[in-house]
Design brief:
By secondary structure, the protein is an alpha/beta fold. It folds into 2 domains: 2-204, Alpha-Beta Complex (2-enoyl-CoA Hydratase, Chain A, domain 1); 207-256, no CATH class. Helices cover 50% and strands 18% of the residues. It is built from 12 helices and 11 strands. It is globular and about 60 Å long. The two termini are 29 Å apart.
Length: 265
């Protein structure tokens, strides 16, 4: 399904899995401001749809996940201080939306994952890539500034020293190194990547949605500064799990030695 306002973004619903597809392969899926707006609209739909339990983000064309901002749009979108401020604030909101999204998010990376693409990947909960994938944070070669929130997400994902290595050197690392530093959960042959991610997403979607939702929110709260943590929200979601019909179903299924059928209620 093409976004009605931007054909550079596609979405698809495959059972309980929602797909967000960056569709700008001639520019290695570089992202314009209009594309980020389209991502927001797609996420609105997926968040409201109770049938969608997992979201997978990927890039079209088989060469790149996302290669960063579309430099051809810089004059229009980042040509003045005011335009830069607007662009940065807009994408900050979208990255944070993905990071805080109430359903699990998976980055399926096949090829280049550069700059803003790396920021996008670490905003997701999990990352799987093909053997040919390459990763880089080239801001230091472009004299770009990166905000606190983006750097913190990268450091949370790989640790301080590995993040500094990527940022200071502006060099590329391969899939094996990305796995070694913990950026990637699994490296797969290119022909196996999509089927593996599909099976993994299906496994998540079969689990209790209220429990997964609680774990997602609590995980994000753990990474916040202590003064900013909403522990009451954590407690509410845990209580909701124990008060749910799914909790009863989980116990029954265990006793009856069968797979549980969770409804998110």
């Amino acid at each position: 399904m093409t976004d009605t306002q931007n054909d550079k973004m596609l979405s698809r619903k495959d059972g309980a899995v929602g797909h967000v597809i960056f569709n700008n392969p001639e520019r290695h899926n570089a992202v314009s401001l209009e594309m980020w707006d389209a991502v927001d609209r797609i996420l609105d739909d997926f968040e409201k749809d109770a049938a969608i339990r997992v979201v997978v983000l990927s890039g079209a064309g088989g060469k790149s996940f996302v290669s960063g901002a579309d430099i051809s749009k810089f004059e229009k979108e980042r040509g003045s201080e005011e335009a830069v401020r607007h662009y940065n604030e807009r994408i900050k909101v979208v990255y944070e939306r993905i990071h805080q999204f109430p359903k699990p998010t998976i980055a399926m990376i096949d090829g280049y994952c550069i700059g803003g693409g790396l920021n996008l990947a670490v905003a997701c909960d999990l990352r799987f890539c093909s053997e040919k994938s390459k990763f880089a944070m080239p801001a230091a070669r472009l004299a770009l500034g990166y905000p606190y929130s983006a750097i913190k997400r990268l450091m949370d994902a790989v640790g301080a020293s590995a993040a500094k290595n990527l940022m200071f050197s502006a060099g590329r690392i391969d899939a094996g190194e990305a796995y070694r530093i913990g950026l990637i959960q699994e490296v797969l042959a290119e022909e196996e990547l999509e089927s593996h991610v599909s099976a993994y997403a299906a496994k998540i979607s079969a689990n209790a949605p209220l429990t997964v939702k609680a774990m997602k929110l609590i995980s994000n709260e753990v990474l916040k500064d202590p003064a900013e943590r909403d522990l009451a929200a954590c407690d509410r979601l845990v209580d909701a799990c124990f008060a749910s019909e799914d909790y009863k179903e989980g116990r029954r299924a265990f006793m009856e030695k069968r797979e549980p059928q969770f409804q998110g209620k």
